[in-house]
Write a structure and sequence with these properties.
2 domains, Glucose Permease (Domain IIA), two-stranded antiparallel ribbon, eight-stranded antiparallel sheet, alpha+beta, about 250 residues, 12 strands, single chain
């Protein structure tokens, strides 16, 4: 009997307010279940209670900041050896430009003969007045030969036995006795220049191959020049450049 009353009261309760209470509890249970389900899904992606959009944005930013894998890092010339490049730049700023010295042109070695020939001045072989001038274009009367002819040297008046000196540095290339000009000594001064000393005494002081300087005594004034025997005592002196007779007065000083 007691059990029937209880069932009757429960039925009344269910027909009244109890129906709404049960309905609320069911809705609440469904809501709580959905809340935990949704929280579990979002927590796996960005943590419990985190914003899904923020989590995705954060992952994108992290991906951008990380360097690409398997990509070699590009290096500029400065990165490869910054110390060396900096030192070169500093040196270029501080050092003054140095003017490159031009190499001097190679100079040809000259022999003593060539050096003397390069000069336009030679010493007089003897001291005296010019008795007969050099003349290749104008004929002059020759008292010894009795005719008019050219004269390819200078006749320098000097006493017999006066020393005859070389007019410059050179080498003796010939010592001979000419039928017309008598005893002759020839000196080569280099660069095509020669000097000849004629009408010397038969005894001379040099021989072929001897090196001489300006003032070296070659011999003495003699009387061996038959073609000039009518002239007073003198030295017949010639200068030849590349086998052409020239006026010694243009070179003697």
């Amino acid at each position: 009997m007691k059990q029937k009353r209880t069932q009757h009261r429960l039925g009344d309760f269910m027909e009244g307010k109890g129906f709404y209470i049960v309905l609320f509890l069911c809705v609440a249970a469904i809501g709580i279940s959905g809340y935990y389900l949704f929280s579990g899904l979002t927590g796996a992606a960005g943590g419990f209670g985190s914003d899904p959009a923020a989590a995705v944005s954060g992952q994108v930013e992290m991906a951008k900041d990380q360097p690409e894998k398997n990509q070699p890092e590009k290096k500029t010339p400065t990165d490869q050896n910054p110390g060396k490049d900096q030192a070169a730049e500093d040196a270029a700023k501080t050092e003054e430009p140095v003017k490159k010295e031009e190499d001097p042109a190679p100079q040809k070695e000259t022999t003593p003969n060539e050096e003397t020939a390069a000069s336009t001045a030679y010493v007089w072989p003897v001291q005296g007045e010019v008795a007969r001038d050099f003349s290749l274009e104008v004929f002059a009367y020759d008292a010894t030969m009795g005719d008019w002819r050219t004269h390819d040297g200078l006749d320098i008046a000097a006493d017999l036995g006066s020393p005859v000196c070389s007019c410059g540095t050179g080498t003796v290339t010939d010592v001979t006795c000419d039928p017309m000009l008598g005893m002759i000594v020839t000196v080569d001064h280099g660069r095509g220049m020669e000097s000849r000393y004629a009408n010397l005494a038969e005894s001379v002081n040099v021989q072929v191959g001897d090196a001489v300087e300006a003032g070296t005594v070659l011999g003495t004034v003699g009387t061996t020049a038959i073609s000039e025997s009518a002239s007073p005592s003198h030295l017949h002196f010639e200068m030849i450049e590349y086998d052409v007779s020239i006026d010694p007065l243009n070179y003697l000083h």
